[in-house]
Amino acid sequence: MTCAYAFTDYCSQGQTIHHVLVDIAKPPTGGLNLFNLYVALSRSSGRDAICLLRDFNEKMFLACHSTDLLAEDDRLAILDEQNKQWWFRLRAA
Hints:
The protein is mainly α. Helices cover 41% and strands 6% of the residues. It is built from three helices and two strands. It has a two-stranded parallel sheet with strand order 1-2. Strand 1, helix 2 (34-41) and strand 2 (50-52) form a beta-alpha-beta unit. The protein is elongated. The N and C termini lie far apart (65 Å). The model has no long low-confidence stretch (mean pLDDT 84).
């Protein structure tokens, strides 16, 4: 028996894990998007440290990004630019 722990891709963001066992099969409810896949597969310290739990549908990697996520990314980029301009004007005053 090997001691281990599990957590979601959300909780794993920003961490580097030396040995990763990843399950990227379609969950029973909801789904996976490219962001979930990226986070799950990029937490390890290298390709040799990843072990996939089971087979998965390769078409997941060919999917387009969600239009809602792309729209949110655009909205945040606009807010970022507005904040930069606001701080620039504030510093210049």
